[in-house]
Design a protein that fits this description.
Distance between the termini: 90 Å
Helix content: 40-55%
Number of strands: 13
CATH topology of the largest domain: Hypothetical protein af1432
Strand order of the largest sheet: 3-4-5-2-1-8-9
Radius of gyration: 29 Å
Number of domains: 4
CATH class of the largest domain: Mainly Alpha
Bound molecules: adenosine-5'-triphosphate, magnesium ion
Shape: elongated
Largest sheet: 7 strands, mixed
Oligomer: single chain
C-alpha cells in the first residue's frame, strides 16, 4: 500500500504518518509553538507540506500565521522584513531562515502580476483559497497535528493531478506566472494537468506575456531540475506559453530531419533534454542546441535529403540573444552558447593525436566534458540504434584523457616560453602581435609536442619574427 495520509477506507485522513511527521524539523514546530504561546497561530503551508506528503526532499519551510508582521517582529528576536508589503517576514530561528507570512486574502489584480492590495484575514481557509493549485493549498498545524485541506488537495495528490484552486480562468487571470508554474509542476512533480485547468491556460496567455523575464527565467531553471523537463516544455508548447517566450522552439515541431533521425527536431530536442546528464546549464544547452535547425533547413539536390548548414553557429547567436533577453547570468550564457556552437563533434578514429589536441584547444579543457555529455545525449535523442556513435565518443574521451595525462600543451599558457620572451625578441614593442606569435607557436606544438621546450621554441620564435619582418619589407610601398 502506498504511504500517505490515506487509511484503508481510501478517504484522505487529516493526519500525517509517523514518517511524514518526522520529516518536519523540530525547529519549525517550535516556531509554531512560540507563536501559540504568544496567543497567535502558525501553520506549515504550501509546497513544503505537499512535498512532505509526497515524501520528496524539502528545502524551504513556509509558515502562515495569524500574527501581523508587527507582532511577528515582536515575538522573535531576529526578523528580516523581506516582503513586508505582502505580509512576509523572514524569521531567523536557531540559525535557519523561515518565511513567515500573515494570513491574507487578496484584492483585485488589475495588472496580472500583483494584487492591488493585500489584506490580512483571520482564517487559514481563506488564505489557502488564494493559492494557485490545490496540492499547494494544504496546511498543517504541527501542534494539533492536523492537516487542513478545504480544497481537495489531498485527493489531487493521490490522483497525481494538478488542479487550479477554484475557478481556473480567474486564478490564472490574476497572476500570469501561475500557468508557467503549472507547466513546471507537471515536470518536477510528474503530475498530469487536470483537463479543465489545462483548458484555462489558453485564455491566460495575454496575462502571461506581462510576466517579467526574471520570473520566467527562474521557473525555467527550476524546471531543469526535473527528471524529465520535457513534460513542462510539452505543456508550454501545446498551450501557447512557449510562443510567448521562445517561438523558435515551437517551430521545431513537425520540422522533419534527415534519414539519420527518427524524430522531428522538436521530439529530438525533447529526447536530448531528458537524456542529458548534468545541471541546469547542461539542460539549457540541450534545449537550445538545435534551435536554428528550422531556420537553416534546406533540401540538398545531391543527397535528396535535408541539410542544416551552419545551424550550430546560427544557433549559438540565437541562444545568446535569448539568454541575454531573459537575463541569465553571463557565466551561464557563455557556457551554453559555447556548447551550442561546438555541439557537432565529428570525431572519427582516423583523427591524429594532433587533431585531438586541436579539438581540446578549440573547446577548452573544461569544455570537453560537458560537450561530450551533450554529444552523447544528442546521439541518444536520435531514436535509432547509436551504439557505434556512443562508442566513438567514448574513444574520443579516452584519447583526450591520455593526452591530458601526458601533459600536452593545449593553450598558450602551457607553452615553455611566455609573453616576456616574445617581447624581448620584439625589442620591447608589444601589442596584439605578442598573442599572435604565441598562438602560432601553439599551433606548431599541437602538431608536434616535442617542440614544447625552451630552446626549440625560442628558435621557432626567431624564425617566426624573421618571417614577419621579411613579409613586411616585401609588402609593396604605397
Ligand atoms: P517549489 O517546489 O518551487 O518551492 P512551491 O509550491 O513551494 O514550489 P513557492 O514559490 O515556494 O512554491 O511558494 C510557496 C507557496 O506559495 C506555494 O506552494 C503556493 O501555495 C503559494 N504560491 C507561490 N506562488 C504563487 C502564485 N504565483 N500564485 C498563488 N500562490 C502562489
Ligand atoms: Mg517552496
Amino acid at each position: 500500500m502506498r504511504a500517505g495520509p490515506w487509511a484503508a477506507t481510501n478517504r484522505p485522513m487529516l493526519a500525517l504518518t509517523t514518517t511524514q511527521r518526522e520529516a518536519i524539523p523540530d525547529d519549525v514546530v517550535d516556531l509554531c509553538r512560540r507563536l501559540r504561546d504568544n496567543g497567535e497561530r502558525g501553520w506549515i503551508v504550501g509546497g513544503c507540506i505537499r512535498d512532505v506528503l509526497l515524501g520528496r526532499p524539502i528545502s524551504d519551510w513556509d509558515v502562515a500565521t495569524s500574527a501581523t508582521p508587527d507582532r511577528v517582529q515582536k515575538i522573535f528576536r531576529k526578523v528580516i522584513p523581506t516582503g513586508i508589503e505582502h505580509g512576509t517576514v523572514t524569521v531567523l530561528h536557531r540559525g535557519t531562515p523561515y518565511e513567515v507570512t500573515t494570513l491574507r486574502g487578496e484584492g483585485a489584480y488589475t495588472d496580472g502580476r500583483r494584487p492591488d492590495q493585500v489584506f490580512f484575514v483571520t482564517d487559514i481557509e481563506r488564505d489557502l483559497a488564494r493559492r494557485d493549485f490545490t496540492v499547494n493549498a494544504i496546511a498543517y498545524d504541527p501542534l494539533d497535528e492536523r492537516l487542513i485541506d478545504p480544497l481537495g488537495g489531498l485527493a489531487d495528490l493521490e490522483a497525481r493531478s494538478l488542479r487550479a484552486v477554484g475557478d481556473a480562468a480567474e486564478r490564472f487571470g490574476e497572476d500570469g506566472l501561475r500557468i508557467l508554474r503549472g507547466a513546471r509542476f507537471t515536470a518536477t512533480l510528474g503530475f498530469d494537468l487536470d483537463p479543465t485547468t489545462e483548458a484555462a491556460f489558453h485564455g491566460a496567455i495575454g496575462v502571461f506575456s506581462k510576466v517579467s523575464r526574471e520570473r520566467v527565467r527562474d521557473e525555467w531553471i527550476k524546471t531543469m531540475r526535473a527528471e524529465r523537463p520535457s513534460r513542462a516544455f510539452d505543456v508550454m508548447r501545446r498551450t501557447g506559453i512557449l510562443d510567448v517566450t521562445l517561438p523558435e522552439l515551437v517551430q521545431q515541431y513537425g520540422c522533419e530531419q534527415n534519414k539519420w533521425h527518427a524524430y522531428d527536431v522538436w521530439h529530438h530536442t525533447m529526447a536530448v533534454l531528458d537524456a542529458i546528464v548534468g545541471d541546469a546549464t547542461d539542460k539549457l544547452s540541450a534545449l537550445l542546441h538545435d534551435i536554428a535547425k528550422p531556420r537553416t533547413r534546406a533540401m540538398s539536390d545531391k543527397t535528396n535529403d535535408y541539410t542544416f548548414y551552419n545551424h550550430e553557429r546560427v544557433g549559438a547567436d540565437m541562444a545568446d540573444a535569448f539568454l541575454r533577453e531573459y537575463r541569465f547570468s553571463n557565466d551561464e550564457r557563455q557556457q551554453v552558447v559555447h556548447l551550442v556552437r561546438h555541439h557537432l563533434v565529428c570525431y572519427q578514429s582516423s583523427w591524429t593525436d594532433a587533431a585531438v589536441r586541436r579539438f581540446v584547444q578549440r573547446v577548452g579543457r573544461e569544455g570537453v566534458d560537458p560537450l561530450l555529455r551533450l554529444a552523447q545525449a544528442d546521439a541518444l535523442g536520435k531514436g535509432r540504434p547509436v551504439e557505434e556513435e556512443l562508442a566513438s565518443l567514448e574513444e574520443l574521451r579516452g584519447r583526450v584523457a591520455s593526452l591530458m595525462a601526458a601533459g600536452a600543451a593545449l593553450s598558450t599558457g602551457d607553452l615553455a616560453i611566455d609573453g616576456r620572451d616574445v617581447l624581448a625578441r620584439l625589442d620591447g614593442r608589444g601589442g596584439p602581435i605578442v598573442g599572435e606569435l604565441l598562438r602560432e607557436l601553439l599551433e606548431a606544438v599541437l602538431e608536434d609536442p616535442s617542440l614544447n621546450a625552451r630552446d626549440p621554441l625560442l628558435r621557432a620564435l626567431d624564425a617566426a619574427v624573421t618571417r614577419r619582418r621579411q613579409g613586411a619589407q616585401e609588402e609593396p610601398k604605397a
